[in-house]
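Open question from group meeting: does this chain pack into something compact, or does most of it stay loose? Before anyone orders reagents, we agreed to write out a predicted structure and look at it together. Recording both the input and the output here so the notebook holds the full record.
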Amino acid sequence: MPLLVTDYSWTQTTSTVCISVPLKGAKASQVDIVATDQYIKVHFPPYLFEAFLAQPVDEDRSVAKVGNGAALITLLKKTEQLWDQLTLPTTQKETKKELREKALVKHQEKLCAESKAKAEKQQTEKKYALKTMMKLEEEEREHIQKIKDVERKKTNAELEAWQQKQHEPLHYETCTRKTLKDISEKSPQRDMRVEKCGSKSRTQPAELPAPRSSGSIQVTFTPRVFPTALRESRVAEEEEWLRKQAEARRTCNASLEDLKDLKEEERNPDWLKDKGNKFFATGDYLGAVNAYSLAIKLNRKVPSLYSNRAACHLKLKNLHKAIEDSSQALELLTPAVPANAAARVRAHVRRGTAFCQLQLYTEGLQEYLAALKIDPENADLQKDTQRIRDVIQDSTFKD
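Structure tokens returned:
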């Protein structure tokens, strides 16, 4: 049973209410604060502070701060007036329980709505960043294409001018030696020209022009304007997981005494796993346990064998064995990558279920919270987690 905090203090104005709750040495990370329009809870085990407010407040504009050994909660009143007292005068357990349940449900719905809105906002930002990047890349491609078009036109014009120059007639009858020399230097190809001066004539090779000057086009790449996906930064962990899976498939102990009477296909862990799955589907949980156990003797590196056997133990009410198998499965499901996320969720839920059936609700809640952290959008997990919270709350106040 928690220890109720009674040495709190509160002050008010016509528009605000300030509540100061001493934390009695607890760290800020250990403090859980829930605030709705008519209910305040500050929980730092083993202490608990609850207040059923006399008047409603604006929960969206209210703030809570933890520091200097106290939790300071500032509430904005919906109606500007002075209160005669902070909390409701009622002391009936049933009334408090009803108000508490409504407040916790409302708080949970608010958290879910905020989580969904945050996810939608992140998705919108990613889409906007992607569109911006595509637009920048398109503009860059158009710019490069314009440069290419200008260079192509310039090159075509130079080529046409050179071709026209090749077809121009050369008149040697009245030219002088200087004129022939100028023509030879300007000619774009090396050929033989006939030089005539008076009564003399001879052949002379023309000189090639100097090579064209080289040039370069500056190309810049568009920078990324949105963050790199988390999956790209976990390549090493995913490769480690795949390596462990491949190693587990290769590990097989086929020299056991229990296998001497089995057929060849019955000595395969995968075959035994499928057999256990069929037994489980038909309700033969003991047969499924035997199949999974033999498969584990053959290969102790496959986490799904332990997780499936834990599910069978739950059905058979072997709760401590279910906890052991779930823990072993979680040890093998490392490193934590998206590829084994669903398997980790199942292992946490099965271990949490076993704890709850042993009436260790706090440990069970921790397991469900771990599963919910992996799959926060799972509605069934959210409902089950809230049910465990309600059980803990009911047992706390009944004590």
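Observations to bring back to the group:
The radius of gyration is 41 Å.
Residues 93-166 form the longest helix (74 residues).
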